[in-house]
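Final report, results section. Input specification for complex C-07:
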Amino acid sequence: MRRISACVALIVVAMLTVLAGGLSAQVEPIRIGVYEPMTGAMAAGGQMTWEGILLAHEMTPEVLGRPIRLFLADNKSDPVESANAVAKLIDQDKVIAIIGSYGSSNSMAGGDVAEKAGIPMITDSATNPLVTEGKDYMFRACFIDPFQGEVMAKYAYGEGIRKVAILIDVAQDYSVGLANYFEATFKQLTGDARSVVAKVAYNTGDQDFSAQLTQVINSGAEALFVPGYFGDMALVAKQLRALGSKILLMGGDAIDAPELVIIGGEAAEGIVFSTFYSAEAPATPEAQKFVDAFKAKYGKTPNANGALGYDTYNILVDAIRRAGSDDPKAIRDALANTVDFPAVTGSTTIDESGNATKDAVLLRVEDGKFRYLTTIKP
Amino acid sequence: MQIQHDPRRARLKLILTLLSLALSALAIWWANNNLSSYYLRILNLAGINAILAVSMNLIFGFTGLFSLGHAGFMAVGAYTCALLTLPMRSKQTIFLLAPLAWPFNAVTLPPFPAVLLAGLAAAVMAYLIGLPVLRLRGDYLGIATLGFAEIIRVVANNIPTITNGALGLKGIPSFANNLWWTWGWAAATVWVTSRLVNSVYGRSLLAVKEDEVAAEIMGVNLTYHKILSYVIGSAFAGVGGALMGSLVTAINPKTFGFMLTFNILIIVVAGGLGSITGSVITSVIYTVLLEALRPIESGWSIGPLHVPEIPGLRMVVFALVLLVIILFYQRGLFGGREFTWDGVLDWIDRKRNRKQEVAG
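Structure output:
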C-alpha cells in the first residue's frame, strides 16, 4: 500500500515539474478578461458577442510580442453576478483590461468595480448613456442611444414625414432611451411640439399590440418608430398590416436579426432601421474580411453583436499596442485616444466621455433581405 | 419543552455568547483589512442573502405565509435608500428622461438613516398590501404576492420622475461593501427574528402556521399576528434590498424580477423552514458555492482528459447539489432545528457521560 502511494506521489511530482517547466519557458501572457451573459435572459446576445471576440482572438492572438490570454466569466444576465464576475477577473485572474458586457444593466454594475480597481473596461454593446457617464475607465465600442434616436428622426424628416408615432417598450432602457432622443430630435426638426402624435407603451413579453396600434392609426401618424427587439417588431409589423395600415415602420439596431423576416414574413417588408454595419454591403475591407472569416468558422452570417465583439477586442488590442505596455493606466489613456480605428462597424473614434462615435448604416427589408440604404455620419 | 434553571449554565451561556460575538467582530475586522475585494464582495453578498433569507423564513417558515413578494419589498427598499443617498451631482446628471421629483431632489441622507427609512418604507408597503392580501391562504397568497412584486416592478418602469424608468439608477454610494454593514444588519435581523420567534408572539405565529382555525379558537388574533410577521419580515427585505443596491451601486427595475425571490426561497427551503440557523448558514453556502464553482466552467484538463469551456456548467452542478440536499434532507439541511448553546452543552455532557461509562 505504502509503495503504491509513494509511486503516485512521485508521478504527481514529476507531472508538476514538467508542467512548471513548460510554463516558465513561455512568455508571460497579456491577460484580458471578458464578462458576458453566456446564460440567462440575454444569453443569445452574449454568446454571439463571445463568438466575435473568439474569432478576433484567433486572428490576432498576440500583442507586444506576448500571447493574449482571454478569461471568460459568465454573468448570468444579472447585475449582481456581473459585479462578482468583474471582481473575480481582477482579483483572481489578474487581468489588465476587461471586455463586456452585453446589456447595459450588467455593464453598469461591472463598470463600477473596474473603475474602483483602476482597470480599463470597454463594453461591446451597452448603449445606455449612463454606462460611461462620470467614469474614467469605462469605454464603449457601440454608439449610444441618443445618436441612434437622432439618426432615425433625421431619416424620417428627410423622407417628408411630419407626423410620427412611437411605440415604446417601457421595461427596456434601450427602448426608452432611443424613443426619448428620437422624440426630442424630431420635434426640433419639425419645430412643432405636436409632431409626435402618439406615444404608446408596452412591456417586454407583450404579444398583442392591437390596442396600441389602433391608437397609432387613429392618430393619423405617417410613420411609426418601434425601438424594440426583433420579436416585438415582427409582431407589430404583422398586426399593423393586418389592421390595414401601410405607414412606414422604423426601428433600431435591436431588430437587426434574421428572425425579423422569419417571424414577420411579408409584413416585415419595407421596415427601415439603423444599425452598425451591413453583412450584405460591408463598408470596409476589414468588414469583408470579418464576414468571410466568421462564415468560415461558424457557418452562419454574423449579426451586429458578433461584429461588435470582434471590434471591441481589436480596439482594445490596438490600444495595448499603442500603450506599449500592459499597465492598466497606460491602456486606459491609449483607449481614450482611439481615433479613426478601422473597425468592422465603421471607423471608430472614442470621444472625451468614453463613447464611440461612428457612422450608422440604414437598412431596409426588401424581398426578405436587409438591403443597404445609406450611411449617416455622426 | 423543558426549561432549565441552572445559574451556572446560564452564566456559561452568557460568557460563550459574548466570546463568540467578540470572535465574530475580530473575524470581521480581520477580513475587512486582509481579504481581497473579490472575497469581500462574496462575503457581503452572503450577509445580504442571510438578511433576505431570515426575513423570508419569518414570513414563510415560522408563520406559514407562502409569500412571493420579497423582490417587491427589496425594490422598495433599494429605491428608497438609493434616492436618499445618491449625491446631488448624480441626481442632476443621471435623470435623462425627466428631472427627479421632490422630495428626493432636495435631500441627501447619510447611509444609516437612509437604510432605516428603506426598511420603514418596505414595512409601510407591507402593511398596506398585507391587510387585504393576507386573507388568502397557501398558493393563492403566493400568486397574489407575486403579482404585487410584479406591480412594483412595472410601476418602477413607469414613473421616470422618481425611478428614472428603465434606465435605472447608478453611482449609489457603496457603503454596503463593508462587512460591518452587511453582517451587522444580518446580526440585527437574526436577533430581532429570534427574539420574536421565542416570545409569546412567536408561539402565536407557530399556532397560526399549524392550524389557523384552532389558533383563532385559542384566542390568537389572526390578522394581527399575520400582519406583524409580514411587516417585520418585509422591513428586513427592504433593508436587504437597500444594501444590495449599495453593493452593486446600480439598480434598475429588471434587477427585481421574480427570480430574485426564488433564489431566496431556495435558500430558505434548503436551509430548513423555521430554522434561522439554517437560513444563515445556507446563505453563506449558497453564495460561496455559486462563485466557487466558477472554475469548472472555464475549461480545464486532467492529464490527457480535456474539458472544454462550458458556460452554465456550474448551474448544472449547483442544481445537482440542491437535488441531493432535497433528496437526503427533505426538511432542509437544518429541518427546523436551531443552533443553541444548550444544544452544544447538552451534546458535550452526553459525550462526557458516555466516556465516563466506558471508563467506569
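The longest strand of chain A covers residues 66-74. The interface with chain B takes residues 15, 38-39, 47, 71-74, 76, 78-80, 83-84, 87-88, 90-92, 105, 108-109, 112-113, 116-117, 128-130, 133-134, 170-173, 175-177, 180, 201, 203 of chain A (CB under 8 Å). This concludes the modelling results for the funded period.
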